[in-house]
Amino acid sequence: MLSLLFNGAEGSTLDELKSVLHFKDEISFNNELKALIILLSDIKNNELQITNTAYVQEGIEIMDDFLTIYTHTYSNNFISFLSYIDFEYIDNAQYINYAIQVITNNKISDVILPEYINDDTKFVLVNTVYFKPRWLDIFDEKDTKEHMFHVSKTQKYFVPTMFKNSIYKYGIIESWRCSFIEIPYLASNNCHFKSFHE
C-alpha cells in the first residue's frame, strides 16, 4: 500500500514516505518493487492473492502518472481495482468491508468503520493480502488444541493452536523481548516466523 502512496504523493508527504521506505526516488523504488513482484510470483504450492483497491470520490481526477503505475505495474501483477464512489452515502464502509471479506475468504471483516468516512473523504486505498500456505512438514489436525493467546498484558483468549514436535531454526530478538522459530513452506524458500514474547 505504501508503494502506491509513494507513486501518488508529493511535497512533505512524499518526503515522509521516502524516509520511511528508505528510497530516494521513484525509479529505484519501482525497480525494487518489480523485483519483489517476481519473487512473490515464484511462490508455488501456496495460495497467495494480493489485491489493491482504490476507492475515489466521483468527480475527482486522478493524476496520469499514478494511473500509469497503478494500471501497468500493479494491475499486471496483482489484482487491482479502481472504483469511483460517492463517499456521502452512509453504506460505503459496509460496501468496502464486504469487498475485503470476499477477497480474504471471510477471514477479515469490519476493517472500515462508518465514522472513518466523512465529507472530507476523497480517496481510500485498500491493500488486501490473502496467504494460505502449505507446510513442508504438515501439522496433524488432531494435535490442534485450545491454548491461551495473549492479546495484551490484560487480555487473553483460548484459541485453536497447532502443536508439533519437530526441529526448527530458533532465534531471539532481544530488543523486542521475544523469541521465534522458522517454519518452512512446501517447495519454497519462504518461511513463516512464529514469535513468542517474553
UniProtKB/TrEMBL annotation:
Keywords: Protease inhibitor, Serine protease inhibitor. Residues 1-188 form the Serpin domain. InterPro entries: Serpin_dom, Serpin_fam, Serpin_sf, Serpin_sf_1, Serpin_sf_2. SUPFAM superfamilies: Serpins. GO terms for cellular component: extracellular space. One of its GO terms (molecular function) is serine-type endopeptidase inhibitor activity. It holds the Pfam family Serpin. Belongs to the serpin family. PANTHER family: GH10112P-RELATED, SERINE PROTEASE INHIBITOR, SERPIN. This is Antichymotrypsin-2.
